[in-house]
Amino acid sequence: MKFNMYFRAGLAVMLLLNGSFAMAAEMPSQEEMWRIIQQQQREIEALKNQQATTREQVEATGEVLDEIQADSTVEQSQMVSASQHGLFGHGKSGSTTIGGYGELHYNNLNNSLPGGVDNKKIELHRAILFVGHEFNERLRFWSELEIERAQAGDQLAGGEVAMEQAFLEYDMTNSLSARAGLLLMPVGILNETHEPTTFYGVERNPVETNIIPTTWREGGIGIGGHFSSGLSYDVLVHSGLRTDVATNFAVRKGRTFARAAPANNLAYTGRIKWTGLPGLELSSTLQYQSDITQSFNASAGSAWLSETHAVWNSGAFGLRALYAMWKLDGPGPASFGADRQTGWYVEPSYKITPELGLFARYNYWDNQAGDAIDSKFSQLDLGVNYWLHPDVVIKADYQNQAGPSGTAKFDGFNLGVGYQF
Which of 42, 126, 266, 358 gives 20 to 30 Å between its CA and that of 352? Predict the structure, then answer.
């Protein structure tokens, strides 16, 4: 019995020892354990890097999608802006674009001339409909249909329905285009870009109304090109103005709007513009017409227009300055002093916030500057623009006019609201 008991006990001890030796044999050494730990650490780091790479790819994909969406928004905005300048941007073949702008004015102006009629009214000054179409990547059409002063017809004098522009544009190269149709003249700051959200003041400034004269369009053809340096040019051949004794040879009264416009004497316009520095635009325009009466009056001859302007925006500060002068030959214009018609203005502005801007403008113009008689006018404007949205603006300004004795001069304030889309 004792032998069996000792035998069993010894056998159990041997089995236990044998198992311990087997386990010891299976246990890795300290060096092997360190190699295993390092391998596991490398695998963990690889998994982390893979996860980070995947996360970066997802974020990058989101950024690309955001950029695509932003680029699309910018492209749409640029197309609308280009259309407002009469330059329809490249887009999908066969696309049609519709847009527009308008402005409502309240004028409260007192006439300083004794017995003169004050200018106090509320008026939907203008409402415009843009329609553009791209036939393909190179050929497009653009038009603006304008309704002025709410309605036109016998019930209310002064209103009109008119085409402000309607032309075809064809890209001959990536930097050279040709246009034909009813064209806005490439002169001044406002004549091509006059949406109410793009300028200060309720009314358009008097210099670009009486001297330029905005909005000025003619029927004709032209080419325009640009260089990578920021230099661009336009050359046009088109119908001209027709002034005469009945209008004292005032250039604004000579617009024909391509409505059966006499074409006895065509006009020629050239412009160069430089935008090579951010926020800066420098431009100069020259126009020539061999007979500003279109051969209907022998008392007048050729006419030259020269205009130059600068636009500078730096942060919150802005500055616009423009000078324009007409020179009319012949005894007819000279008899009225209209052989020389000139004007200029300076307009500094400051944006307190991106939505709120203040401006001041001094205007000087004279449509009979060719004689010694006092015929010059000046106007001081002070005001504010508040943009509810980049395409919606509320305006208020105060104006004070000075001019020759015995002429109407208007002082007071104006309120306005404008939009574009």
Answer: 126
User: Tell me, which fold does domain 98-420 have in CATH?
Assistant: Porin (2.40.160)
Domain boundaries along the sequence of the chain: 2-62, 98-420
Q: Is the peptide bond before 173 cis (omega within 30 degrees of 0)?
A: no
Which distant-in-sequence residues (6+ apart) come within 8 Å of 28 by Cβ? 36
Sign (positive/negative) of CA torsion 388, 391, 396, 398?
Answer: positive
Amino acid at 365: W
Query: Angle 416-282-379 (CA atoms, 0-180°, nearest 5)?
Result: 40
Residue 256 and residue 211 in contact, taking contact as beta carbons nearer than 8 Å: no
Query: In sequence order, what E strands does 135-208 have?
Result: 139-148, 160-173, 176-184
249-298 pLDDT tens trace: 999 999 999 999 988 899 999 999 999 999 999 999 999 999 999 988 88
Nearest to 224 by CA among 281, 179, 268: 179
Neighbouring-strand partners of residue 311? 281, 320
- 3-state secondary structure at position 45: helix
What torsion, rounded to 10 degrees, do the Cα atoms 322, 143, 200, 72 define? -110
> Residue 123: which residues within 8 A CB-CB, separation 6 or more?
104, 105, 107, 149, 150
* Torsion angle, alpha carbons of 346, 256, 87, 149, to 10: 70
**Rounded Cα gap, residues 182 and 198, in angstroms:** 23
pTM: 0.77
Q: Which residues contact 108 (CB under 8 A, 6 or more apart)?
A: 120, 412, 413, 414, 415
**Mean pLDDT, range 371-389, rounded to an integer:** 96
